[in-house]
Prior knowledge:
alpha+beta, Jelly Rolls, six-stranded antiparallel sheet, three-stranded antiparallel sheet, 7 helices, 14% strand, dioxygenase, Phytyl_CoA_dOase-like, iron, oxidoreductase, metal-binding
Amino acid sequence: MSVLTAADLDDFTERGYCVLRGAFDERRAAPVRDAVWRRMRDKAGIDRADPRTWPAAYDIQERLDLPEVRACFPDVLARAVEELVGPGRWRGDRDWGFWPVNLAHGADRPPGSVPTEGWHVDGNWFRHTLHAPHQGLLLIGLFSDVPPTGGGTLVAAGSHRRTAHVLARHPEGLGHRELFDLVLAEPLGNVTELTGSAGDVVLAHPFLFHTRGFKHTGPPRFISNTEAGLTAPLRLDRGDGSAHSVLEESIRSALAAPPPSFTDPVRCRF
């Protein structure tokens, strides 16, 4: 039985992401938040009991090799990954990596305003091409509840389609900042805040542009980003009779249509 619905697959292809609700739960998320608080205290003196020590945001750029973290990558999430990238085409690394904690980022900005800075795709460790296997998917795990205006990740829904067109024009590949400059030369739009409950996981296209949202409500926001790297480069023209993955089909679909236009365009930068 499939984990993702037909509507989920359509969302991934058209909007650049879908959401697996309840991949794990608050019972499993709470000890992970405890571990992140401990790590922030050890690294930067950020004391959970003393908000005076809290910065607006803090990023732990490391994997936490702990059993409570590994418990938050269950079989149902692994199956969802394979439904998007194809059976046997995922490296199978079940861990969580980068930990962006939002304590009060943008609290001084007007409610409802959209950040114009920080827009990016992940992957500063490789050269970007249409076929690069390094990231596969961007997985965003919610390790706390994220209410509206609670500092959730913002995505430009459909921006993966523009990224695909840019990369198609540069088969030699692009560096991280080169890609940003070309995609962000025109405004983005369709900005959507990723909200949900602890245990929800966003499965996002590797070409989807996103940034940290402004935080006006709720407790500190805990998420983790990781990649679902592939065993081999993507193949957009399979001549061996094997089926294209949903990820491959999403890129084929993007390239078969004109670059997208956006509602409520916003001039963005990295």
